[in-house]
Each structure stands twice: as structure tokens, then as C-alpha cells.
Amino acid sequence: MDFWDHLFDNEYKRRADIEKLKRTARARRLARRRTADQIDSQEKRIEQLEDKVGELALLCRSLLTILRENGAVDPQRFQQIMTEIDAEDGVVDGKITNPSPPDDPPDVPEIRAW
């Protein structure tokens, strides 16, 4: 503590420090609450997506079973077509991969009004 801090160390300075600490603590509590709310929201969204994936898997399996039982689908031909469709996106990974956005934004033509 230097001379000026010692000279002006008074109740006002302490009160200002206390109030600053209270504001900081309040801001941290709000941030934690927001984070917890976001986590809850994300967990709900994940649960919804998992339900939809389960429903779609059930639907696909049911359709394929019916088609196979009726003789409308050859399992080997189905696998071949599925692999070809999977390779269309450039990545054979067992799913359709969304194309990544280009690294460089498209060039916007310069428009001169005058």
C-alpha cells in the first residue's frame, strides 16, 4: 500500500469496493443461470431430435421389411444404391453429409450508380 492509498483509505473506498464485488457476484450468478437455462434448452432439443431419429429409423425399417417381404427390393441392390447415394457428397460415411460452405465468399460485382 503506497502513501496515497494509505492516506485516502476510508469508508467510502471500502463501500465502493463492496458494491463492486456485489455487482460482480450478481453478474456471475446471472451468467450461471443463463448457462443452466441454455443447457436445459439444449438437452430438450437433443431429446426431441433423438425421438425424431428413433421414429424415422422405425419408419425406414418397417418400409424395408414390407418391401423385402413382398419381393420388391433386392437387399444387395439396395445396399449398392445406398452406397452410391452416400458417395455423391464425396464422403462415404454412412450418411448424407451437408456440403461445407465455401472458404471465400462469392465476389460481389461492383455497381456504379454514377
| Secondary-structure element order, N to C | HHH
Strand portion: under 5%
- First-last Cα distance: 66 Å
Number of strands: 0
- The helix content, as a percent range, equals 55-70%
Alpha-beta classification: mainly alpha
Low-pLDDT stretches are none
Shape: elongated
**What does the main sheet amount to?**
none
Total helical elements: 3
Mean pLDDT: 83
Cα gyration radius (Å): 31 Å
Account of the 3D structure:
By secondary structure, the chain is an all-alpha fold. Helices cover 68% and strands 0% of the residues. The protein contains 3 helices and no strands. The longest helix has 59 residues, at 11-69. It is elongated. The chain starts with a helix and ends in a 27-residue tail after the last helix. The mean pLDDT is 83.
Summarize the structure.
This protein has a domain at 9-80.
Main features:
single chain, 114 residues, mainly alpha, 3 helices, 68% helix, 0% strand
Could you outline the blueprint of secondary structure elements for this entry?
Blueprint: H1 3-7, H2 11-69, H3 75-87
